[in-house]
Amino acid sequence: MDDYLRINEASWNARVPIHVASDFYDVAGFKAGRSPLRAFELAEIGDVAGRRLAHLQCHFGLDTLSWARLGAEVTGLDFSGAAIEQARSLAAECGLPARFVTADVYDAPQALGETYDIVYTGLGALVWLPDLTRWAETVVALLNPGGFLYLAEFHPFQNMLDDDTGTRVVRDYFNREAQVWEYPYTYTGDDVLEYQTSVQFDHGVGDVVSAIAAAGLRVEFLHEHDHTLFRRFAGLVESDGAYRWPAGAPRIPLMYSLRASAR
């Protein structure tokens, strides 16, 4: 636990060049105008034109810059210096106004020194944070009155299931111990990572909602989705760029989204 931040920073710095070059992120497509934002995110967040948006744990900025293309005044924050360097370079190349800051998410209020209409956190972010209470309090400190948090995440229910078929319960949903992983690859392909250790933290949906409510935000909705962005289990089938269980098969939630407003 004492070293989780240093370990994960090294892991993510090593992933950046692999991710930038990957088909998964399709940076060339982004430069040509493609948006990686999901349809449900666009519908649930609504018009961002003229609004100040902070993207926490922004990686190398594709989602952040997509919000900029839609008219938001964006700031991205990530603890990976390599990711922020790439984000700044991409913003300059695409001619998109954006501010990118290197800092731990828990230090965001001090590192950014500003408040926002929208705090956005995208998929795969919360698993890297040990303390959701502190995270929610950080979000509140960044929000203007009447602003809102928008969170899209992979659903923790799927983490209970076996990685091959997704049909057998093999893990404890309520295990909150830090998990140390040694894995040679990142999720974008078969390129071997220079630094292969990471530390992750599972959080249940109840943990997330409770932390947000305790921090003083009002939950507007919690939506669960039956699709995900990659073939998480072998039985999922692709449809319109998303992966779902075949028609007629029992479904489980694979992602969820939440919006909560500041009072």
Automatic annotation (TrEMBL):
Methyltransferase type domain location: 56-149
Source organism (scientific name): Nonomuraea monospora
MF terms (GO), sorted A to Z: methyltransferase activity
GO biological process: methylation
Entry keywords, A to Z: Methyltransferase, Transferase
Pfam families tied to this protein: Methyltransf_12
InterPro entries given in the database record: Methyltransf_12, SAM-dependent_MTases_sf
Name of the protein described by the UniProt record: Class I SAM-dependent methyltransferase
Methyltransferase found in the keyword field: yes
Species classification: Bacteria, Bacillati, Actinomycetota, Actinomycetes, Streptosporangiales
